[in-house]
Write a structure and sequence with these properties.
771 residues; five-stranded antiparallel β-sheet; 20 helices; 34% helix; protease; carboxypeptidase; glycosyltransferase
């Protein structure tokens, strides 16, 4: 029987299956060599096919995650959101801000420059204005769909690289302004994009640019181009030319700096350049463009019922630090309750105005600031008249309460503070004689009554304002740096920490408040308030509470416990401040001033000498340029300044020089008398002396007894206790017994020596080294 073996059943030793391929040598075209196979036996073709499969799947996932799902979400968002109308937005703009005194009584209303405005139609806004804004803010406006992909990528790149510039279109800016939401969140941005897109699907481009121009902020409190045209040019918007339109368009980016000439000029040029790039103006128009004439800020709105201008400015600056910036200021229907005491403000305004009424020198200016040491709140703020006449036109005046000036000898309080921090005290002795030479420089005292013996205590030197003592103290013991530090610890705010004052520690000029050291009256009031508050420093502020149109609290100042100013220990800071008060107490009486009845007070006068220029009359050599009186009671600190715009040779009656005690001093005293009248009596806390406990016996050749204290000056006599940069003059007497306020610690060993300054003619005064 013959058996047939099926071919399928046959298996030889190397059989691998139907797809078996002999692994023996092959020609290149017959198959793949082993080295082309991966570990899983896949051929290059198989591997390529797998790679594309992975790529396709990733692409599908990418499209799903970043295109399909977002597209679906965008469509859903699109139908859910609404685009706010300009009419509804306008209801929340251009609202007056109501100001109240601390007791809740009305102070006035700050009305926006443009007043109540109407919503303009596309036909009422000229093309030149629309073109200026489109070119400056969104050159792709005519073609984009509400957002610009290129702009978004550019904005993202700028954020990553730290550069300026965003990618918002005009539509997006409108939505951002309309919703008053600028939170840096993806949710806000996503919703903004959907609304912008919907706006462009719903409205014509002419309607969109008109809506934008009706609500955007331009500065000067003007929302909408109609209000801005009035606020900047007193023109109807239809009458604006291309240069005026360019300025308004440029200011959209920086409305809060509209009064800064450099910023305004720069933004104007940017707008014109972009108008040229977009062919909205010709090259000839660009070349011939002249910066438009802008009306003065003071003429841009009616201030008849507004609060005192300089208080208004300080309040706005403070609100900006708490989230209510210039862009939102007129949009919330806010009511601002200030720290200003109505009675104190009225007294300050009256005494400051009266102080200059009968003066023969019409260049004299003044300011007065009062601060509550217990809270840091400003009780009264007078920076001079808000408006001045210049060539028959009203112009805004400078706020002299916030303008840095040489403080003169009122700086000596900080010299002493630095000295006390070293552990040395007011009974340490220095050579207080006149005409001492330091490193080749001669330092003089202000006159016979400002000098004392070769063994002069610091307390006596402070009372007499002996320049040689304090210059020696700062040059050879404390050094300038710690004096500047003490001033800042007390509350002086320099440009480095958000203020305007300048403190120069380059040399010992700081000891006498000269050179490049310049401090604002507001800072001096705050710094001396720290002494009044037993060494506790509290930041100066103007705002108690802000409520919006719905009576909701938008901001409320919290009571400040303050911080120890001169030492980490509150007890040590109090001791230092108390020792400063001990030294400043006798200065008041010695300067022919008096404390309010029933109240203890302390303070320091200050005068800065005028630098004589060629061609000036002979009397200018004895003239002064800045005068001060800064002092306090336990409940109020007051800085009074009288000077001029720059270094001027000021005079009183005839050509007599003015001093800290002649105009500023009486102004300070009258304010305290008026403000504290009827208030409970107050005394300073007593503290122990720092350093030497008993002064040595005085050996002053001018000492003598039996003389009566001088009478109040008539405003033209020199001040025997005045400062380090003033000049002497005819002095006919001096106090025999320097006054020590009731309730203060007594002199450690009896009474101080008496000094009877001799009569004499005018001296050359002190000539401190200049920087």
């Amino acid at each position: 029987m013959t058996h047939r073996i099926a071919e399928d059943d046959y298996r030889d030793q190397g059989y691998r299956g139907a797809d078996y391929r002999d692994e023996g040598p092959l020609d290149p075209d017959d198959g793949y060599p082993p080295e082309d196979l991966d570990k899983k036996g896949r051929t290059p073709a198989q591997r390529k096919k797998r790679r594309w499969k992975i790529i396709r799947r990733c692409a599908y996932a990418f499209v799903g995650l970043f295109i399909v799902i977002p597209a679906i979400a965008f469509v859903i968002t699109y139908f859910m959101v609404d685009v706010p109308s300009p009419q509804s937005i306008a209801q929340g703009q251009n609202q007056a801000v109501t100001y109240l005194y601390a007791d809740g009584s009305p102070m006035g209303k700050d009305v926006p420059s443009g007043g109540n405005r109407q919503i303009l139609t596309p036909q009422q806004i000229p093309d030149v204005v629309k073109h200026a804004v489109i070119a400056t803010e969104d050159s792709s406006f005519e073609t984009n769909s509400g957002f610009d992909v290129t702009g978004l990528l550019r904005a993202a790149f700028n954020q990553l690289t730290g550069k300026a510039g965003g990618g918002s279109t005009i539509s997006q800016q409108y939505i951002k302004k309309a919703t008053d939401n600028d939170a840096p969140t993806l949710t806000r941005k996503w919703t903004e994009l959907a609304k912008s897109f919907k706006m462009n699907q719903t409205y014509e481009k002419q309607d969109i640019i008109t809506a934008y121009l009706n609500i955007i902020y331009f500065g000067r409190g003007a929302y909408g181009v109609g209000a801005a045209s009035q606020a900047f040019f007193h023109k109807d918007v239809s009458k604006l030319d291309y240069t005026e339109a360019a300025l308004l368009a440029g200011l959209i980016q920086q409305p809060g700096r509209s009064e800064n000439p450099k910023v305004a000029q720069g933004r104007w040029n940017t707008a014109l350049d972009r108008m040229l790039e977009n062919k909205y103006i010709t090259a000839q128009q660009r070349q011939s463009a002249q910066f438009p004439q802008v009306i003065p800020l003071e003429e841009s709105k009616d201030d008849a019922n507004a609060p005192y201008k300089f208080i208004n400015v300080q309040v706005k600056a403070e609100l900006a630090q708490h989230g209510i910036d210039d862009d939102k200021y007129y949009a919330g229907g806010y009511t601002v309750q200030t720290t200003i005491d109505k009675h104190a403000q009225e007294v300050a305004t009256q005494v400051a105005t009266d102080a200059l009424k009968d003066q023969s020198d019409d260049r004299l200016l003044n300011s007065l600031v009062a601060v509550d040491p217990k809270t840091g709140g400003v009780l009264a703020y007078y920076g001079g008249p808000a408006l001045v006449d210049v060539n028959g036109k009203k112009q805004g005046a400078r706020d002299w309460a916030n303008t840095p000036q040489n403080p003169g000898s009122s700086m000596k309080a900080f010299d002493l503070t630095a000295f006390l921090k070293m552990g040395k005290g007011i009974n340490e002795t220095f050579d207080g004689s006149n005409n001492r030479v330091f490193d080749g420089r001669k330092v003089r005292n202000a006159g016979p009554s400002s000098s004392c013996s070769g063994q002069c205590t610091v307390a006596e030197a402070m009372k007499r304002s002996a320049n040689t003592v304090f210059y020696d103290m700062v040059l050879n013991q404390t050094h300038p740096g710690p004096v500047g530090q003490a001033a800042q610890e007390a509350g002086v705010k320099t440009k480095d920490n958000g203020g305007k004052s300048l403190i120069s520690t380059a040399d010992a000029n700081i000891a006498l408040g000269g050179g490049n050291t310049q401090i604002t009256p507001a800072d001096m009031a705050s710094a001396y308030a720290t002494f009044a508050a037993n060494g506790v420093q509290r930041d100066r502020h103007f705002v108690l509470k802000v409520t919006n149109a719905q009576k909701e609290v938008a901001y409320e100042a919290q009571p400040s416990a303050g911080k120890p100013a001169f030492d980490s220990s509150a007890d040590k800071a109090k001791q230092i401040a108390g020792n400063v008060t001990m030294a400043l107490g006798p200065v008041v009486d010695f300067s022919h001033l008096k404390c309010p009845s029933g109240h203890e007070c302390a303070g320091k006068t200050g005068t800065q000498q005028h630098t004589v220029r060629s061609g000036e009359p002979a009397w200018a050599a004895n003239a002064n340029a800045q005068t001060w009186m800064v002092g306090y009671t336990p409940s109020v600190s007051v800085a009074a300044w009288v000077g001029a715009d720059g270094d001027q040779a000021l005079h009183g009656s005839g050509t007599s020089p003015i001093y800290g005690s002649t105009i500023a001093g009486p102004m300070w005293q009258k304010f305290l008398d008026g403000y504290l009248k009827g208030k409970p009596a107050e005394k300073f806390d007593q503290v122990s002396l720092i350093g030497v406990q008993a002064p040595p016996a005085q050996g002053d050749q001018n000492a003598g007894d039996g003389q009566q204290p001088p009478q109040q000056t008539n405003g033209n006599q020199p001040d025997p206790g005045d400062d380090g940069n003033d000049h002497g003059g005819p002095i006919t007497g001096g106090p025999s017994q320097p006054h020590w306020p009731t309730g203060l610690p007594h002199w450690p060993s009896g009474k101080p020596s008496s000094h009877n300054p001799p009569t004499g003619g005018p001296t050359t005064g002190e000539d401190p080294p200049q920087e």
